[in-house]
Amino acid sequence: MNKFRSYQQGKWLRIGKSFFEHRLGVIGLIGVIVVFLVAIFAPYIAESVSGYGEVKDILNSPSLEHIFGTDALGLDLFSQVIWGTRISLQVGFLVVLIAALIGIPIGLFSGYYGGWVSTLGMGLTNVFLTLPLLPLMIIAAAVLGSNINNIALIIGLFSWPQIARITRSAAAEVTGMQYIEAAKSLGIRANRIIFHHVLVNASAPILVNLTIVVATAIISESALSFLGLGDPLTWSWGKILHNAHRSGAFISSWWFSLFPSLAITFFVVSFNFLGMGMREALNPRLRE
């Protein structure tokens, strides 16, 4: 038991060392930490945004008083971008939760059992992968309503196929290993093997893929909000871009669209870089 614990500790130390040697991964980790800190301390960083601003503050360019400028209602853009961080994280992690709850079980059972179970699971996955996602998400958002939780549900329901495929591939590889065959021969229940052994040992590529899903979710939410299908009661980055376009100030008042666009880019790039670092650290073959 002590030898096993020592091996596990040494394994995680090697993974940590490998991750911190990956420069883009470290940059991504720092970016993600910054995003979390901004979301947590938003009330202390920026004022709440509501109502209308002063007429004299309408579409003011960046200044000491309003460092990101103001919008067509005279409201501070810096505050909107800061509060939008919370909405982005909420959407991102709700989408990941929904997609994981659907995609991981389908991938695990497909990879473990193979045969008709894999044919059925991957057939359903391939059907979803061939669907035109944006038009369907637009229709679903119009039908279900623009509540932020509904938006996350819609995006999550269309995000699980890629998780299912990655999980299926990893699960099939793990299932073919000797210790899984040994567990089967000992009469251990299939569900226990799948969720206690296969899932744990196939978790590396799944975790990496989840970071990509978070980034993709933000792009999807921003697209829906930009098209006017976002939650009107929240300040998401996509909604700020929608307001800029609707007011006709998308180009003339450059700050109106620049800063929310930079926030989206920073968020997406940070999670993608984090995923790249995790992928190399968790995959021994990539570290060689």
Q: Can you give keywords for this protein?
A:
elongated, mainly alpha, 288 residues, MetI-like fold, 76% helix, 0% strand
CATH superfamily: MetI-like
* Rg, nearest Å: 22 Å
Low-confidence stretches: 1-8
Question: What is the global morphology?
Answer: elongated
Count of the domains = 1
Measured as a percent range, the helix fraction is: over 70%
CATH architecture: Orthogonal Bundle
CATH topology assignment:
MetI-like fold
Fraction of residues in β-strands: under 5%
Structural account:
By secondary structure, this protein is mainly α. The chain has a single domain, classed as MetI-like (MetI-like fold, Orthogonal Bundle). It has 14 helices and no strands. The longest helix is centred in the N-terminal third of the chain and has 37 residues, at 77-113. The chain is elongated, with a radius of gyration of 22 Å. The two termini are 28 Å apart.
